[in-house]
Amino acid sequence: MRNNTSNFSNIPFQALFNEETILSRVKELGLQIANDYQGKNPVFVCVLRGGVYFFSDLTKAVPIPIELDFIQAKSYTGTESSGNVELIKDLDSEITGRDVLIVEDIVDTGRTLKFLISHILSKKPNSLEVASLLFKEGGEAVGYPIKYIGWNIGKEFVIGYGLDYDGKFRNLPGVFLYSED
Ligand code: 5GP
């Protein structure tokens, strides 16, 4: 399902998923999620900042009552081997007893998600599921089932649709392969 489309010809990166393809997949996920959460009033949690476009499109594609909240964690690349993750912004809502869906941009090593799952589970929600637009090879190390996945990808570094390289490229209207040349 990878495509290089002419409408991205002005962007010097190879497109993996264009905006149209993403929106169509997001709509499918939205209907599946709406079906699973019928009558439950779940809380959708956006993982800032990368999850922002996926979250925005996904929540609009879920035609049932839901509530929105935001969380942010920071991984320390300098101490990657120790896997330090710190909470930068916690949820504002009380989620004890609620049905919670974490909405992530990408699961790579799964370290950030593992941290967030454990943090949210400590607040005793009724249920906790995860939606991730992209799931990288090896992400299974998170040790928690990711119920909703847009696409499985390889180990390549991707940018756009919320994903950055050094703070840039988040606003590209699709997912692209990052390359230096
Ligand atoms: P983790 O390795 O903990 O699963 O990934 C943590 C974070 O690293 C992700 O939420 C994302 O912000 C960033 N990340 C991982 N892989 C990529 C990638 O291919 N591209 C970009 N832009 N960020 C990534």
From TrEMBL:
User: What reaction(s) does this enzyme catalyze?
Assistant: GMP + diphosphate = guanine + 5-phospho-alpha-D-ribose 1-diphosphate; IMP + diphosphate = hypoxanthine + 5-phospho-alpha-D-ribose 1-diphosphate
Domain of life of the organism encoding this protein: Bacteria
Residues annotated as domain Phosphoribosyltransferase: 16-165
Which Pfam families does UniProt cross-reference here?
Answer: Pribosyltran
Q: Name one GO biological process term.
A: guanine salvage
The entry's family comment says: Belongs to the purine/pyrimidine phosphoribosyltransferase family.
Put simply, this protein is called: Hypoxanthine phosphoribosyltransferase
Which species does this protein come from? Leptospira neocaledonica
Gene that encodes it: hpt
